[in-house]
Amino acid sequence: MKLKQLITSVAISALFSGSVLATEVPVSEQDIAKPQRTAEPSNFIGDDGKLDVSNWLSQAYGFLPVPIMVTEPAVGYGGGLAVVFLSDSLVAETPPDISGIFSIATENGSKVNGGFYQGYWKNDSIRYEGMAVLPEINLAYYGDSTAPLFDYKLKGAFLDQTILFRVNESPLFLGASMTYFDGDNSIRGEAQGPIPSFGYQNRVLSGAVELLYDTHDNHFSPKNGYKIEASLAHFEGREADSNYNYQKAEVKHVQFWELQQWVLGLKVSADVVDGQVPFYARPFISLRGIPAMRYQGDQVVASEFEARRYLDSRWSVLGFAGAGSAADKAQDLFKETQVAGGAGFRYLIADKYGMEVGMDLARGPEETTVHIQFGSSW
């Protein structure tokens, strides 16, 4: 659900990605048997004499502090800290379980605290992700207006669990997910327009079937391959003395092509809801340059293209452009299209893992935004 996407992006945008732990890195048996954590200068210098954290990451295990940076324009800039526990070295033969707690705050007064766990079981044939979060996120609701109709606080308790099973030994995973949100949302300040009739003191439980097909050549910063994610969910909610329900379908396709010194990327996504949907849970256009929750509708489609040019073995520059449309009916899609684009750079910070970091500057229909990137922006 889009609520999950927003909370996750705000809360753990800079934490280790679970899929990263499955990246294959050639190491010796001695490295696996005796992981050691040190801070010697050589651990931060690559074979080419440039800054590189591969050696440090390959030795990391146990409890690790992880700084968090938030650059989501819907809530403003912010940061925080996570304490992460790795059950083994990242280069162990079987991906280690990862768990942790985190706390963040942003400049508009939003706060998110919570914990998470990611497990890779039976030689990565089963993947489990769980997250429990207490969000207090300050947002603006626009509806169909060009100006905010009102500000509101998204507050409550959020629980998410996902389990995926690998089909044979293929890149295909099938599974299920469950989310629960006990909300105590409220309007902040004076409303400048109509207020939705429900979506405040409510409880929502969902169940979904999930599909993942991933052929990317790297889980940090892919250069080839594609990934398809799809889900079909049913939501049951209750507010005051009445019940409501709605359904949601989501699909996202991300593709990369490597052409000599260039890497081209394409993302296409679509979200559809049907039924009685709380105002905060409606799908929204997700593109660099457009704040989360800005353009919402019962049906949303978006696409973004990226071209990255490598200057040398470490540095690359890129440009990107995207477009999306949100509407309540399919026939109204693309009557209004929102366009955004920008440019950025990447630096290969961990050569062994193929991990790139960098920054993007994006311009949307209304504002310019800055995005700190760890790995792929998608």
UniProtKB/TrEMBL annotation:
The keyword Signal applies. Gene3D superfamilies: membrane protein fhac: a member of the omp85/tpsb transporter family. Residues 1-22 form the signal peptide. Keywords: Signal. This is Glyceraldehyde-3-phosphate dehydrogenase. It comes from Paraferrimonas haliotis.
